[in-house]
Amino acid sequence: MSIRKTNPRRAILFLGCVMALFAAVLVARAHVERKYRTTASTHITLVVDSVDYRADLTRMYGKLIGTPHTSQRIDEVTLTVGSTHFRATDIDGVDFQRWFQWEDDGMIPVEIDFERMAPVRHGILSINTPKGVDTLRIDRP
User: Fold this and answer.
1) Residue 6 gets which letter from DSSP?
2) Closest among 87, 88, 86 to 113, alpha carbons compared
3) Positive or negative, the Cα torsion across 74, 40, 137, 108?
4) Is the separation of the CB atoms in 47 and 62 below 8 Å?
5) Best exposed site among 1, 10, 11, 61 by fewest CB in 10 Å?
6) Which residues have C-beta within 8 Å of that of residue 135, sequence separation ≥ 6?
7) So where are the chain's domains?
8) Minimal CA–CA distance to 91: which of 79, 82, 83?
9) Per-residue pLDDT tens digits of the chain, which is 141 residues long
10) Quick one: DSSP state of residue 81?
11) Which candidate, 77, 62, 58, places its Cα nearest to that of 119?
12) Which residues, at least 6 apart from 12, have a Cβ–Cβ distance to it below 8 Å?
């Protein structure tokens, strides 16, 4: 019967990787806020699923709701918290200043990036479109 020796460097490296992965999961979970409520608007409704507050940016996850088989364009998104305005820097799912169309279900998943900010409990989201400005209130109970 032989006993296999474990390389101490390999064991330390493995343990370090496991600890780093565990820490990354904890950090990611600690900064994601869920349970936002939004109000409906005239042209586009954005249902906010969650907001991820990262060290370098704030990413809002949600769904655009619209009438199936119609088109729309988003030119700008601004989040107002108190007297501070945060202008969106990027959007995934649709493009700023480009027309898009809703398919049969009338929903488009989106990710909207803002500059880094502290967690938000209440705010006003303004979505500028060629058809008008939609204002939605977002609240986290």
Assistant:
1) P
2) 88
3) negative
4) yes
5) 1
6) 41, 124, 125, 126, 127
7) 33-139
8) 79
9) 555 666 667 656 655 545 555 444 444 444 555 566 666 667 788 889 889 999 999 999 999 988 899 899 999 999 999 999 999 999 999 999 999 998 999 999 999 999 999 998 899 999 999 988 989 888 887
10) E
11) 58
12) none
At 31, the amino acid letter reads H
Q: Would you state the CATH architecture of domain 33-139?
A: Sandwich (2.60)
Phi, psi at 41, each rounded to 5°: -135, -175
Whole-angstrom Cα Rg for the chain: 21
Residues linked to residue 136 through DSSP beta bridges, in sequence order: 125
CA atoms within 13 A on the CB side of 91: 23
Distance of CA 106 to the CA centre of its chain: 19
Q: Please choose, from the candidates 130, 111, 131, 128, the residue with its C-alpha nearest in 3D space to the C-alpha of residue 52.
A: 111
Residue appearing with tokens 């200043």? 97
Q: Residue 96 carries which DSSP code?
A: B
> For tokens 């330390």, what's the residue?
12
**Looking at this protein, which amino acid is placed at residue 15?**
L
Report the C-alpha gap between 62 and 123 in whole angstroms.
15
